Amino acid sequence: MTRSLASIFFPILMVLSIMEYSFAADMISLAQSVSDGERLVSSSQRFELGFFSPGNSTFRFLGIWYKNIPKAVVWVANRNRSIAGAHGVLTVNNDGNLVLLDGTNSTVWSSNVSRKAEVPVAQLLDSGNFVIRDNKTMQHDESYLWQSFDYPSDTLLPDMKLGKNLKTGKEWFLTSWRSADDPSPGNFTTRLSIQGLPSIVTYMISAKVYRSGPWDGSNFGGTPVSPNLVSLSTVEHREDEIYYKYQPYNNPIITRLTLNHSGSIQRLIWNERHTEWGIVYSAPYDQCGRYGQCGANGICSINKTPICECLKGFRPDSEGLDASNHSWSTRCVKKRPSDCQKGEGFLRLVWMKLPDLIDFKFNEIMNLKECEVECLQNCSCSAYASATLDGREKGCLMWYGDLIDMEDRSGKGRGPDIYVRVPSSELVGASKEKKRVKIIIVASIISGMIVLGLVSCFVLRKKWKRVSVSGYALNDKKRTKTTKLLSVIPGMNILAALFSYITKKTWKGGQESCKENVEVPLFDLVSIATATNSFSQENLIGIGGFGPVYKGILPTGKEIAVKRLSKNSGQGAEEFRNEVVLIAKLQHRNLVGLYGSCIQGEERVLIYEYMPNKSLDYFIFGLISSPFMHPIIT
């Protein structure tokens, strides 16, 4: 009987012990510990916590990393003090604190929790967050006595905060590693600036080295891509805190935001197919991404040579002029002292990264016209622009003194307009220059058409004489018609010239209208490549005159058609962008929907709605010779 009971209960006890071990694999409690060589694993098997030595280092650190991915450490506990040798032990003491001890039983690091719990438990969550909570209320986030998400290292994971608690003064920010092999705090930090409108700023010690544009409700201005297909970004404004965070569209997506030891912010996504991390974007992304690259009152344009130029009415400071590359490294100064309110006005600059908010005013109720009036009345007001919050215009911004860290973003995607104060001479000069160009264009076109008309008359008259001489004399009626035709041709050519000029002007105006009123999403290449399995042959659904088309699936599950324009299509970035804006403006029931585009390096990519039932290949490879206009045949 005893043997029979033992045979029944022994398997049950084994199962219970396995269940207990599985439950405990992601947590430790009082009198339990994690020694060097042991690990905690989150319940979904995504993250691990344990001891590691970075690179070629022999020192030991306690950290968190992805379990089944080549080691990418996302958090380090003892950044300020390493452990010599594999003798570290992590434990939960009687006060409910996490304590890291070395081989001599000295405290290397502690969580320093002030509140006590009756049954303290330290657990590694599936989010990568390592928390201490009371085991009696372990289902509630409010019960966290301490969490690693409040003390970021160099990595921002989904749902982590980058910002500030306005009540306590607690700030969440990233700090780089000192080097690739040393996780101790480095020279770079990335923070959410909450001065005026929120923006992302990277510092080297205390000096700014990178700054995004202001948050506009969906993206930070001046960043390389907006939006991306990987995650949804938000800036939360609450009574006691303001912070930035992001969340992947789908849980299987593995993505992180890292500040590397060289000061570059990188958004990374794990490519399961190629088993490697792909860089969605990096900031600073080029020379113009560096803070204040062209100094005060200078504009950086990466597509120009040199990349720096002064605002109208300014000139390079001779002391800061770098003769080797014809750029300036300090500032632009006014050509002449300001003649305040003596004909001064504002010059509109489109698709710009707005200057840094150093000496500024933010008015939430003023419209753009009221902002212009107030700025003009203040001699020290340098510029103004609309303020965009939550995706809509809300008030205006005014800058005083020098304008720093401006960038021309035409050709890179979208950007707001800014109105910069210039002297009356620059306004008159700009107006005269426009008139001069128009006169030259009109005169050239009309002259060319007149010459063409005279040549046409000469050829026709010569042919008419030849016909008459050959014995086929024209009767009076035909002669009259021919004479009238000859007299009308020059007039037709002049009308054609005028029509050409007016059409060009209207087209230019249409483009400006598109710039003002149409926002075309600009997607990043890595996200598109992920959606199409890196433009694989399995996803290829056709090849047209302008390039191949692939079927893709967004993280949201929506199907898309991705058209990758051939590098031989001959389109530049500006021409491509203008046409994308135009087709977006021409949304019509007989045109396939355009979701967005991508301009990255030499790549030109269009993202359309996917049309099933064999209609996609027709409207993408139809007879209309345009990479954009695709009629849907029903």
Automatic annotation (TrEMBL):
Keyword presence, Glycoprotein: yes
Protein name: non-specific serine/threonine protein kinase
TM spans (from-to): 439-460, 485-503
Record Pfam families: B_lectin, PAN_2, PK_Tyr_Ser-Thr, S_locus_glycop
Positions of the Apple domain: 340-423
Native organism: Theobroma cacao (Cacao)
Keywords for the protein's UniProt record, in alphabetical order: ATP-binding, Disulfide bond, Glycoprotein, Kinase, Membrane, Nucleotide-binding, Serine/threonine-protein kinase, Signal, Transferase, Transmembrane, Transmembrane helix
Signal peptide annotation: 1-24
MF annotations from Gene Ontology: ATP binding; protein serine/threonine kinase activity
EC primary class: transferase
Domain Bulb-type lectin as annotated: residue spans: 25-145
Enzyme Commission number(s) of this protein: 2.7.11.1
Protein kinase domain sequence ranges: 535-634
GO annotation terms (biological process): recognition of pollen
Catalytic activity: L-threonyl-[protein] + ATP = O-phospho-L-threonyl-[protein] + ADP + H(+); L-seryl-[protein] + ATP = O-phospho-L-seryl-[protein] + ADP + H(+)
